Every structure is written in structure tokens, then in C-alpha cells.
Amino acid sequence: MRNRVTLHEQRKWLLAALRHLRGIKQMRPDWGRLYARSLVKLVLVEMKLEQLEKQKEVRP
């Protein structure tokens, strides 16, 4: 059985990964692709969180 990761945890990990990748001195194409992919995932997680917040506001 897989442990589910909450969106908040996923957001926290992605932010930490982006901070780490920004700190790399020699940026290679692979690191750039990983940074871009992590950034896209972060945006998707943020969108899901916003959608959940809106649903909570609609349903009291």
C-alpha cells in the first residue's frame, strides 16, 4: 500500500528542490531540464491547492 503525499508536502519538497537547484554553480542542461520540470510540477500543485480552496469556500 502506497503512502499518499499531501499537496502541501509535495509543494514543500518541490520548493526545497528548486532552492537546491538554484544553488548549483555549474548549471548543465540536465539540471536545467530538472529545474524546469520541477517548476512545472510546482505550478500544477499550486493550481490544485487553489482549486481545493475554492471548493471549500463554495461548500460551507
Describe the structure.
This protein has helices at 7-22, 29-58. By secondary structure, the protein is mostly helical. Helix 1 runs antiparallel to helix 2. The radius of gyration is 15 Å and the shape is elongated. The chain starts with 6 loop residues before the first helix and ends with a helix. The model has no long low-confidence stretch (mean pLDDT 87).
Q: Which descriptors would you attach to this protein?
A:
60 residues, mainly alpha
Briefly characterize the structure.
With 60 residues, the chain is mainly α.
Q: Can you lay out the helices and strands and say which pair or pack?
A:
Elements: H1 7-22, H2 29-58
Helix pairs in contact: 1-2
Low-confidence stretches: none
- What is the 3D shape? elongated
Give the number of DSSP strands.
0
Beta fraction: under 5%
Q: How large is the count of helical segments?
A: 2
Give the biggest sheet.
Answer: none
What is the share of helical residues? over 70%
Distance between the termini: 33 Å
Calculate Rg over CA atoms.
Answer: 15 Å
Structural class label: mainly alpha
Mean pLDDT: 87
Q: What is the chain-wise order of helices and strands?
A: HH
